[in-house]
Structures are given as structure tokens and as C-alpha cells.
Amino acid sequence: MSCLQREPELSRSQELLRIASRKKAIQKNVKLLGLEGDSDLQFLLQGGDLLKVRSSSWKKTRYFRLQEDCKTMWRESKKTFKSKQTFSLDDIAEILMGRQSEGLKKNTEEQVESRCFSIMFKGRRKNLDLIASSEEEAKQWVKSLQKVVSNINNLSRQQTTEHWIFSCLRKADKNKDDKLSESEVKNFLRLINIEVDDDYAEMLFKKCDKSKSGYLAGEEIEHFYDLLTQREEIDVIYGEYAKTTGFMSPQNLVDFLMKEQRGKATLADAHKIIEKYEPDEHAKEKKLLSKDGFLMYLHHPEAMILNPEHSEVYQDMSQPLSHYFISSSHNTYLMEDQLKGPSSTEAYVRALLKGCRCVELDCWDGSEGEPLIYHGYTLTSRILFKDVIKAIKEYAFKTSDYPVILSLENHCCVEQQAVMAHHMSSILGSALVTSPLGDGMPTNFPSPEELKGKFLIKGKRLNKLEACFASETAADEDTDVTEEEESNDEDEGEAEQKEKKKKKLKLAKELSDMVIYCKSVHFHGFDDARKNLSFYEMSSFKEAKAVTLAEESANAYVRHNVEKLSRIYPAGKRTDSSNYDPVPLWNAGCQIVALNFQTTCNDMDVNQGRFLVNGKSGYILKPAFMRDITTEFDPITLTRGDWLKHKTLHIMVISGQQLPKVNKKKSSIVDPLVKVEVHGVPADVAEKETRPVDNNGFNPEWNENFQFDVYVPELALVRFVVEDHDSTSDNEFVGQYTLPFTSLQLGYRHVPLLNKNGDLLPSAGLFVHVMVMDAE
Length: 776
What we know:
Shape: globular
Strand order of the largest sheet: 13-12-11-14-15-16-17-18-19-10-20
Distance between the termini: 91 Å
Oligomer: single chain
Number of strands: 28
Helix content: 25-40%
Largest sheet: 11 strands, mixed
Strand content: 15-25%
């Protein structure tokens, strides 16, 4: 009988251990997030019931709760009581209050608007659409999630690494007793992406098991963590300069900053760094920097590879609009391919949050007098024009304050064009530019600074802009757009071209009058454009035509783009939403090089790198030699001029940290190699790679040196790519980071890594040494 009674006691004991372990884990993570005693975090940890919406007929109650890592959301079914991991807060792109998602608009009634919210994820993962029991509860969920996501995003890389390793330790501790057996240690090593043989794992375990108990606990786990996270390369660098009883003095730190990092540094700068990054209060009191403090400093954004001054708007934003490269999207409404993929307002939200400043709206007649947006003559789904304008209005200036261009591809009848004009006017209000800035007829574009918070319309116009300043009798009342203007302006399939041969497009005056600085016209050559086109008249070029011009008439194209805007778009054959290389078009001075933002690829990585700087404003000032109408610059022939500033780039790829698994199988470990690429004018394009390191994604070391010649540094981009080596097939992508050559910081630098969607991999990175020298 006593044997029968003992089982529940053991079960209760284990449950108490689990509760105590969970409390301890929560306390550690709450402290790390800086949210001790925060009511919003406690709300998420307690959790609650929400109605999950998948369709009009599938709405089910689920219990959602934040786990003890303060990062992972779990859900439990009310019917089966089964729990499973739902998502990580790292994966959240945006939290939308109300019925903003396509799913909630389609599958719920207006009366539940105030109780609805959606979680929009990074990448292509579907939204999570939810309904709370009350408006107050919905607001509480949104507020709490936004706060914790914000705090996670603001963690330092050192804190993020600690959080990640601690989470892996929790996963490895299967029975949640705060102890690690030898088998759990091996499981942990696999979780953090490192494969070691049994002998080494046993040696590591015994070295830490000071109590000889057969498991690690307390300080033994801390010792195990210290052994794993030891960075020999950091030890060597630190030891070279730590000349004061094993610590760095302010003068030692100044010596390091000036000699290795090639920066200007004073003792006052060193004191600030010690005060900010030294974790040991005793060392801080003595004005000394420990190795931990040194590493924390090297992980901080100000010390990483990207010049921190370039993270803010640092360029002159008072130049004419045509003097900037502008982050631009093609067929922005599409989430996937060009033939049958879904159209969604969320695609606009995603593009705008990534800093896109020119979005495309493909407009067609809809039922009940409401214009629609979709890809014509295909099976792509359809969305309301007015819903798109509302989404653009709400998210246009969350990432950047600088102007957004709405590129209209207009296939609507005159009546529905008038509806389009009404929606844009009523929704965008005074932010919509409907007349030239200033007094009188302008002779050049306004600047991004003058257009802050404004929307520009790109499209057809019935007459010249000068007509706005002519007498009323001179105004052109014709509603026809000539066939010449309409043809070849956008990406047209054969069916669309045949349709246009049958009828001319009639243009509503209300819509025409909204086109001020971006009037779409046909391109008849550079001489014709120079002689006959006003500054605000711009052409769109299919990629093949643009590439030909950039190769065969590069200097003429560069000069054309000093005073006029050019928009480039992908070829119609790219039905899979693939992209083209934007670099040759930037080399020709083209401003609006439109890519499929929904597609993950090398070209989008490079595009993100181009617009990474200048505060992610979506506007990058072209070099001075591309803003001069008399320029002789030709990226192909590279004749002598101010653009030739031959540099030698030396990069040493030293090590990697916490590289993620590509294959999610438990036993899979990456064999990482690093590629370093230079993108720019043809003479600068180059690529070199390291050898692969077998079975180690946690702390691989390469210590390999590369050298590159860079002739036009102002147009060059440097890209670091990590791949998982495979001798029998193509390597798999692990992560990458691209930045302008002119934004590189010299010396020993950490390089953050982005995943294939362009989002930060929280703990992953490379450690490199960078040197740039004038070539002899």
C-alpha cells in the first residue's frame, strides 16, 4: 500500500521542482530584459484565452502564455489540453491593432473591430489573427507584446548571446532539475551547433564536475559556460594591450583604439567606454577595463563594422530628388509569384517597414465602382485600392520620414480613376503633393528634406505641369493619353499589349492633376530627352533595355539621371518574382531601381546593404561625380577623373560565433565557410572564400587573409556571406551582411549576420580585421 502511495508524492515533488525551476528561470530572464516588476510582462507570463481565426468557419479558443525564457509563446488547446510552441517574439515584425489583416477583414464582422489584433511575422509566415474577449484585453495584449518585443530588440549582442545560451541550457535540461547530466551536456552541445567526439565531451564534463556527482549544477554550469564562450582571439588581442596588472588602463585602451582601430581617441573617450561597458564595479572604480568589459565594448554597435555615424541620417538631404538612389519596390502588392500568388496590403506594410520609398499600385476596375489592385491577366488575388492607400498612410513614415512615391499603373476607366483620386485625397490629405512647392513654375526637383512626410504620385498626366501656371483657357481638357506615352511604360505581357491596341486610355482630370513631379512618358533616346522633356517627365525601363543602355551608353545614362528620374523594373518573364542585379543600374545613376521585395535573394541582400546607411531613410545621395551634368564618368571604361580613388582592401576573416543550424535535424551541424564579395563598377567586382570548418557552427576559426583592389570606392559594397559547405551539392545559405565600402570601420570588428529574409540573426556573427590603404 505504501508503495502505491509513494508515486504521487514523487510526482508532486517533481512538480514542485519544476515550479521552482521555472520561477528561477523567469527571474533571470526578467532581469536580463530590465522588466523586473513590470505588469505588462507579468500579464504575458500569466497568459490568457484568445480566439484564433483561420477562416469564417474556423475560430477556436486557444490559451496563449509566454514561457520562462520571456521569448517563446506557447499555446494550449482547450479541447485536447495539448501544448506546443507557437512562435518566438524574435519572429514578430509588427503587431496590428484592429481588423487590419486580410484574414480578419475577410473572416470577421465589423462589430468585433476593437477586440481584434494580428501578429505579423518576419519572412513569409502567415499572420496570427486573434480576437480578445474585450477591447481592454486586446489593447493589453498589444501593449504588452510591443513592450517585450522592443526590450528584446534593444538587448546588447552580449545579452542576446547569454539569453540564447541560457535558453539552450534550459532545453537540454530535460527533467528541469537545474542539473546537467553527461548526456544532457552532449544534447546541449548539439543545440548550440557544435559537434564534438564522445571523448572530448567526457573530458569537458569531468573538468567541470568538481563535486564528482555525475552531473553539473550551479557554479559548475557557470564554469562550463565560461569554457565554451572563451574567445582565444580576444584573449590574444586583450593580452597585447592589458599592461596594467592584467587589465586595460585608459591609456592602454587609447593605444588599442588608435593603433588597431585607426580611430581618433582621447583619455576622456577611454574613461567613457570603461564607465559604460565595464561590468565589474571594482575594476570600474579603479578606471580599468577587464576582458569581459572589452568584449562587451567590441559587441556594441559603435564598435562593430558599420560606422555608427552612418546609422543616422548623415548625408546632405537638401539636393534635388534626382540626386539620390531611392529604395524601390516592384509589384509591391504581391506576397509571392506574379501569376497566382496572393495580393495583400500586408506586402505594402512589409516593404515600407524595410524603408522602401517607392511602391507600385497596379490598378484595375472593380465591382461596385471600387478600384482594385492586382496583377492583370493573371490569377493573383485582388485587394481594394482604398485599403492599400489606408495601409500606406499608416506605415509610410514609421521607418523613414522622407517622401514616398506612389507609382500608379493605371488600367481603370475614367469613373474609377476619379474614385482613386478621391480616396488618395481624402485618406492622404495634406500629405499628398497636388501642386508644385513654392511660388511659380519650378525648374528642378524639390529635395527629400523639403518633401518630408509627403506623398508623390507617379503616373500619366494630360498636359505639361506648366499648364498649372497658364491661363485657364490654355488648360488641356482632352482626356486621352496618346498611345505613344502609354506604350512600353510598364511591364506588359502580350495580352495586355493587345488590349491596349484596341483602345486608348482615358484619363480623369482629377487623377491627372495629382501628378506633379513624376509624369510618366515614353523614352525616345537621350538626345530627345535632353531637348524635349521637362525635369519632371520620367521614363520607366524594362531591365534588359536599362542594362543595354548602362553597358553601351553609360556616360549618357549617368548624365540623363543627373536631372531626370529613371525607374527600372524586372522583365515580364520573371513570373517567379525573381530579381536582377541592381548594381549596374546604380552605376549608371538610375534612382528608382525597383525589385521584388517579397523575394529573398542575393540581389535583395545587396539592395538592403545599399540602403542600410543614412538612417535607413530609403534615400542615398549619389557621389558628386554622378550629380554633375558635364561629368565624364563611365563605369565601364573608367577613364581618369575624381571617381578614381584606388584603394586596397585587406580583410582577415578570424572567427564566427553562434552560427545557426541550416538543417533543423537534431544531429545536423554546419560546416561553415565565409565568402567576401565586392560589388560595384565591373573593375571592382570580386569574390574570395575561406576553407570550410567541419562540424562547428558555435565558434569556428578561419584566420584567413584576403586582398581586394577597389577603384571606385564611393559605389562599392562589401558583402560577407556564411554558407554551410556541402561537397556533394550546392552550399546552403546561413547568413549574410552587406554594407557600403565607405561605411566600413577599420581594425578588429564584429560583423552581424542577417537571415535570408534580411532580419537580424540575434546571436550570430563574424569577427574580422579590416584595413584600407591607398594603392601605390
